[in-house]
Design brief:
Length: 1394
């Protein structure tokens, strides 16, 4: 064979194996081969050999394709017609193609040209066609009607068993009768079909006779079609015997479904249209709510009539009749073909078809169930006998299953086609569910190999078993069996099944639509009666009856009611106590679906709070998780997924879960005693820092254990991703969130993130072991670099691990030395890497001003390490002892209540013992921590840092402010740590500068803080002012704790260090009080409700220590009164201000006059009283301005006599106060003259010069005035600090009295500060070099500005004497240092902290 034909062989074999293009590809190859003969490329012998190859001939139908291809080749090659005829002859002679097929497929002209047929072949063919199609047969009708058909009927109707007549005998007799009487064969065939219909017991004989009588299926199909058409015209249901006959004929192969299908009525399109109309009518009925009982009765009657009509139509549907016959005959394949043509579950909707399907499935599943099921059903199978008898009489296409593979291949598709109608046989349903449970358990062990089988099981539950459960009566055992199978699947697969059941299964299914409507109606009736009083056994029983079989739609309605009515949350959660595990699992799915609804807004349009539906659902989730065995993992994973999408509002669900289960609530409203308990050990924190009862209920303990197991599950990591995502959202909200969000909303969401993070960590700390938590938590470096957490958050998460590491190292028995020495060595070892990493987070320039040891020590320690809350320990122990006294049982009483009391007493005694041991351990830790801090304090601030203000500023920016905002306990820690630096007498540390900076930047901090941060900052201020008040109250305390310390050194001259005297310290406290007043008044007088709330929150926290003077309190009360009188003030602001007003008035007995708080200020205090009371029409801001101006003037001994201060233009060193003053648009007029404490000659010259006008000043006078100021400033260092700060502020807010224009740096107004997102941008820091020369030019410029400012407000002073000038030059260095220390930047912004 030539090479081209070899390639053709390969191509032809490939074409014949392609089932889709079998004939097309083969014809193309053969045409090319035959065309090669015409061109002379191949010979006839090659072609015949090619066609006779076994690999080609073995394909069925090849001869037909080859003959057709040869005919096409002859027709296409007319030019070589003779040559092609030779090829035809060669192929015909060789027998390569069947000769009969060649004669059939080739044209007559070709056959005659090749002499393969006679020459007159066409004439004979014409005569044959004429006889077949046009000539009519003549019968003796009179002869056949008389006797012939009578004998045929007699032969067909005899008893074949008794007469011992076989099929061969019968067909011989019938053929004899037909030939003898010349009967019509079609009518004889019709009689045979009628006999088969009437005598189905002799079906074997009739079938064999029919097979021999005719082999044309079309003839039988036409006769049966006529019968079906006649039946369709008759009223009433058709007879089932004809359908049984058709089924038997199809089983015997005498009839095919494709041949009969054109005769079936109604058509498929008519059936589908009728089903759609019926579904539409049912949907309309279930969605129509009647206004009266009469209308409802009419609707019910119309629906019943529609159901009857639909049943009649189904009974007359011939396809349904055939399907029933096939099922009864055991021919599942043919029945499945009909079911695939009709709408889903249309065939089993007919009761007869349903019964037949259930019978067949019983027969198929019984052997497998008996071998697999662990327990047998208590009652026998109702259809077992019928199935066995029917199956024995026919060869069923669905034999009995003996393995799970057979079950998955045959029974599961049949059950899926049965759909929700499996509920008609609970026994079969139970068998199927139990076998599926066994199948799932084996599939899980097999692993990934059984993925396809698990998918089939999931589809079976979604399409058949769970919809069937809806149609069951209240059947708890079936629900339990269903849950036993479903609980082995992962929750993702279960929820996928529930989703299809809830949203898809009932659509286009009239039976399920009605069941769903009845469930809603029943649920509505129950919820109308549900209250908190009757949510007991009766209501729980009624709800559980509905939830046994249809929980998905019951909970769908229930959650709608909960979203709308918050008072149903608690009663419904109580009424779910008798539900099944399946119902609880479906409830969690329904809750998640409701929470995931994208069409609902999660924020109220009128305010910035969560929508009520979200709050109600979150509360309901917390209750059901606490009370019932609901899986935590889906809900926690949902929260994680929402956080990945930056959806923070869903954290309310997690907050409610932790609150309801663990009892941890918002820590912002803690009392002082609870806050002290937060500084204790684990037991004290659990007993004393929570709002709820420390003893958890049984349900709470169970739910808490379940939640902890979910957190620590090795399979699905949830805890650490949840913590990290919440921490990341704090940064994302501020810097990466939606730019269109209001600033107030960002603050609210930020606070909620922080609250939930603290709640979650409290729960983790109390319930998860340290080893497990440390194992899952990433290292500190990874938290900061990989997950981009802030230092405060990362250290908060890592601090527990670091503390445990120190304790483990200190407890090592191989260590030598005392406990303090061991602790110090352990701390040094554990903090070495932490210090190195924290140092790498900031540029090297930072560490030239701030010690890395101070930074790492501050972030490593906690309130637990600084002090022991002995009062909190004593308080909790006293409560437990009191409980023991009240629960003391009577002697000899053995009742259940007394036994419980004894158990409580034993538990309380064990807790008391543990608390005492914990307190002793903490005291030891505090002692070691203090010793360590004392040893490290020498290296906290390096002596080379000449600019003490820079060190303090950096400490505030990098340590105090970031941490005091984190939590209430951290705010207290920051205040106590700063005081501890003072009490340890840390070298080169200025406590005075620290206090001054804290009060100087209060307004900036509050303006850029959220509400919760403002509250925490208020706690920080309260602790700071508590220390200041203790120093202020007793001179002996001041002399003991302040005077000898480096922190209260006023002059940093190494030769003559000077400390602040007690009187000067009281002046400073006076100035700090007035500064706070101006800051608070500037915010209270703003029109920003959010800023007012934040200011009041801080004022509530410091109400015990501010205000301390009557005149300041009076001004503050007037400002509060104006807020309350203002009709535009928001209601929540009024409530908060009213609360503060009440607290402030309750402490009015602690207020003292200004001359008592600052005894050195008797004159100014006498002037202030009438000034504040004589101008009733003046605003509180103006009064505060006057008060603070006078106080700052009287307390500053460096001011010369006769100097005049313009109150409105140069009165305040606080930026917010300046803004308020400028916004009042009042006249700026001189208020008073201030006198200094200089010598008598100076006072005389100053008094005479005070009368000079502005125009009489000369440059020489300007220079003398500046020298005089330097001298007076150097005289008293603490006063110099305050005066310099005040003059610096005046320089920044200097205003031209004529034009009113601000020539200094503009300060942000309170409203603009609150409207910016987190604007805490600091002004430029001082030079980090630490040398005095770096600031010398700036100092000269500031002095000039200060002099000009004073000259505008009063007359120039007289020239100083030579002695005064020399003294001024000697002290100029100290003056510059003091002024330099007060000129510091405001606190850092949140952006700079990050």
């Amino acid at each position: 064979m030539s090479s081209p034909l070899a390639e053709s062989t390969t191509a032809l074999v490939a074409a014949l194996q392609d089932s889709e293009s079998f004939s097309v590809g083969a014809v193309e190859v053969l045409r090319d081969v035959f065309a090669g003969f015409a061109t002379g490329d191949v010979s006839a012998d090659d072609i015949t050999a090619f066609l006779q190859q076994d690999v080609i001939k073995e394909n069925e139908g090849f001869d037909v394709i080859a003959a057709d291809s040869l005919m096409l080749a002859v027709a296409e090659n007319k030019a070589n017609e003779t040559k092609m005829h030779e090829l035809v002859k060669a192929v015909f002679a060789s027998g390569a193609i069947d000769q009969s097929i060649l004669r059939e497929r080739l044209d007559i002209a070709v056959l005659k040209a090749c002499k393969l047929v006679p020459a007159d072949y066409d004439k004979g063919l014409m005569r044959m066609r004429m006889k077949m199609f046009y000539k009519q047969e003549k019968y003796n009708l009179f002869h056949e009607e008389n006797e012939g058909f009578a004998k045929v009927v007699t032969e067909l109707g005899q008893d074949f068993t008794a007469a011992s007549v076989t099929a061969d005998d019968l067909i011989t007799r019938i053929r004899t009768l037909v030939g003898f009487f010349n009967l019509d064969p079609n009518r004889v065939l019709d009689l045979m079909l009628d006999a088969l219909e009437e005598h189905p017991q002799h079906a074997a004989v009739y079938t064999a006779c029919l097979a021999q009588f005719t082999t044309a299926q079309d003839s039988i199909a036409n006769l049966i079609g006529l019968k079906l058409a006649a039946i369709a015209k008759q009223p009433g249901p058709p007879p089932t015997s004809l359908y049984a006959t058709i089924a038997h004929l199809m089983d015997s192969g005498l009839l095919s479904l494709s041949a009969l299908e054109p005769h079936l009525l109604p058509t498929l399109e008519e059936t589908r249209e009728r089903v759609r109309a019926y579904v539409k009518s049912v949907t309309k009925y279930v969605n129509t709510s009647a206004m009266s009982q009469e209308v409802q009765a009419q609707l019910d009657a119309a629906a019943a009539a529609a159901d009857v009509d639909e049943l009649k139509a189904k009974q007359r549907d011939q396809r349904l009749g055939l399907a029933v016959a096939f099922l009864k005959n055991g021919n599942w394949d043919l029945a499945e073909k009909i079911m695939s043509q009709l709408p889903a579950f249309y065939v089993p909707s007919l009761p007869a078809a349903r019964t037949a399907m259930l019978t067949t499935l019983h027969h198929c599943i019984e052997p497998l169930y008996r071998s697999v099921a662990a327990t047998k059903l208590s009652r026998p199978c109702p259809a077992a006998t019928a199935s066995s008898s029917s199956s024995s009489s026919s060869s069923s296409s669905m034999p009995a299953c003996t393995s799970l593979v057979d079950f998955a291949a045959r029974v599961m598709p049949a059950l899926s086609s049965l759909g929700p109608f499996l509920a008609d046989d609970p026994v079969l349903m139970t068998k199927a569910v139990r076998v599926c449970a066994h199948l799932v358990s084996l599939a899980k062990e097999a692993g990934e190999k059984s993925t396809a089988m698990l998918a089939e099981v999931e589809d079976l539950f979604a399409r058949c078993i769970l919809p069937s459960l809806m149609r069951c009566s209240s059947n708890a055992p079936i629900a339990a069996d269903v849950w036993a199978a479903l609980q082995q699947l992962p929750y993702q697969a279960r929820f996928k099944i529930y989703g299809y059941w809830k949203n898809e299964s009932w659509k286009n299914q009239p039976e399920l639509l009605l069941v769903r409507a009845k469930t809603f109606k029943k649920a509505k009736s129950l919820f109308q009666r549900l209250t908190a009083e009757n949510a007991g056994k009766k209501m729980a029983h009624d709800l559980s009856k509905v939830a046994f079989t249809n929980p998905v739609h019951l909970f769908e309605y229930a959650l709608r009611q909960i979203e709308a009515y918050s008072n149903l949350v608690e009663p419904l959660s109580d009424a779910l106590k008798t539900h099944t595990h399946l119902a609880y699992d479906i409830l969690s799915f329904c809750v998640l679906e409701a929470l995931s609804n994208p069409q609902k807004s999660r924020m109220k349009k009128e305010d910035l709070f969560e929508s009520s539906w979200l709050q109600n659902l979150a509360a309901f989730v917390g209750l059901i998780l606490r009370k019932y065995p609901v899986d935590f993992e889906p809900i926690l994973q949902f929260i994680i997924n929402r956080l990945k999408e930056n959806q923070v509002l869903d954290l309310i669900v997690l907050r409610e879960i932790i609150t309801k289960i663990a009892g941890y609530e918002n820590a912002e409203d803690m009392t002082d005693m609870q806050l002290q308990a937060m500084a204790g050990g684990q037991i004290l924190r659990q007993r004393g820092s929570t709002f709820s009862n420390a003893r958890l209920t049984k349900d709470q303990r169970r739910a808490l254990k379940h939640m902890t197991e979910t957190f620590t599950s090795a399979q699905d990591e949830i805890l650490i991703p949840l913590i990290i995502l919440i921490a990341q959202q704090r940064v994302e909200l501020v810097f990466g969130g939606d730019k269109e969000r209001p600033v107030v909303l960002i603050g609210e969401l930020y606070d909620k993130c922080q609250e939930v993070l603290m709640q979650l960590m409290q729960c983790v700390e109390a319930n998860i072991s340290e080893s497990l938590y440390f194992k899952r938590l990433p290292p500190l470096e990874e938290l900061c670099t990989t997950y981009h957490l802030e230092v405060d958050t990362a250290m908060f998460l890592h601090r527990r691990r670091l503390t445990a590491s120190i304790e483990d190292l200190a407890a090592d028995k191989s260590q030598t030395g005392t406990a303090v020495q061991k602790y110090m060595r352990a701390s040094e070892t554990a903090m070495k890497d932490v210090t190195s990493f924290l140092k790498s987070l900031h540029p090297p320039a930072v560490w030239t001003e701030l010690s890395p040891q101070l930074y790492s020590t501050f972030w490593t320690l906690s309130l637990y390490d600084l002090e022991t809350p002995s009062a909190a320990y004593a308080h909790v122990i006293a409560e437990l002892e009191e409980a023991n006294r009240q629960n003391r049982p009577a002697p000899g009483d053995t009742s259940r209540t007394e036994k419980r009391k004894r158990r409580e007493i034993t538990s309380n005694e064990a807790t008391i013992k543990a608390l005492k041991e914990e307190e002793s351990r903490q005291k030891a830790v505090v002692k070691c921590a203090h010793e360590m801090l004392t040893s490290l304090s020498k290296s906290f601030v390096q002596p080379s840092h000449s600019l003490k203000s820079v060190v303090v500023s950096e400490f505030l920016r990098l340590c105090i402010y970031p941490r005091c905002f984190f939590s209430a306990a951290d705010a207290v820690y920051c205040a106590k740590f700063a005081v501890l630096l003072h009490s340890m007498r840390t070298e080169n540390w200025s406590t005075l500068l620290y206090f001054n900076f804290v009060f100087k930047h209060t307004a900036c901090i509050i303006m850029s803080a959220t509400e919760n941060e403002a509250s925490r900052y208020g706690r920080f201020l309260n602790e700071t002012m508590r220390v200041l008040a203790r120093f202020h109250a007793d001179p002996s305390v001041y002399q003991k704790e302040c005077a000898p310390t480096p922190g209260f050194i006023a002059s940093f001259n190494k030769n003559e260090p000077q400390t602040v005297k007690f009187a000067d310290y009281r002046k400073m406290c006076y100035n700090w009080q007035t500064r706070l007043l101006k800051d608070f008044l500037s915010m209270l007088n703003s029109k920003d409700p959010s800023l007012i709330r934040r200011a009041v929150l801080v004022m509530i926290k410091v109400v015990d220590h501010f205000p301390r003077m009557k005149n300041l309190a009076k001004v503050l009360l007037e400002a509060i009164e104006q807020i309350l009188k203002d009709e535009t003030t928001r209601q929540d602001v009024k409530l908060l201000v009213t609360s503060y007003n009440r607290q402030l008035l309750d402490r009015s007995g602690t207020w003292v006059p200004a001359n008592v708080y600052n005894p050195t200020d008797t004159k100014s205090a006498a002037k202030k009283a009438p000034a504040s009371s004589g101008k009733a029409a003046a605003s509180p801001a103006k009064k505060a301005k006057a008060t603070t101006d006078k106080s700052s003037t009287s307390s500053s001994s460096s001011k010369t006599d006769g100097k005049k201060i313009a109150t409105k233009s140069n009165s305040s060193s606080s930026t917010p106060a300046k803004t308020t003053s400028s916004s009042s648009n009042s006249k700026r007029t001189p208020k008073s003259e201030h006198k200094s404490s200089s010598s008598s000659s100076s006072r005389k010259s100053s008094g005479s010069s005070g009368k000079k006008s502005e125009s009489n000043k000369t440059p020489k006078d300007e220079k003398r005035r500046s020298s005089k100021d330097d001298k007076s400033t150097a005289a008293t260092t603490p006063t110099t600090t305050t005066t310099s700060s005040s003059s610096s502020s005046k320089r920044r807010s200097s205003t031209d009295p004529k034009s009113g224009k601000d020539h200094g740096r503009a300060a942000p107004s309170p409203s603009s500060s609150s409207s910016s997102s987190r604007a805490r941008a600091p002004p430029p820091l001082p030079s980090r070099g630490g040398s005095t020369e770096d600031l010398q030019p700036k100092r000269a410029k500031v002095s000039s500005s200060s002099s000009s400012s004073r000259d505008r407000s009063g007359s120039p002073p007289p020239p100083p004497t030579e002695r005064e000038s020399r003294r001024s030059r000697d002290r100029r260095g100290d003056t510059r240092s003091a002024a330099r220390d007060t000129r510091l930047p405001p606190p850092p912004s949140r952006r700079s902290r990050r």
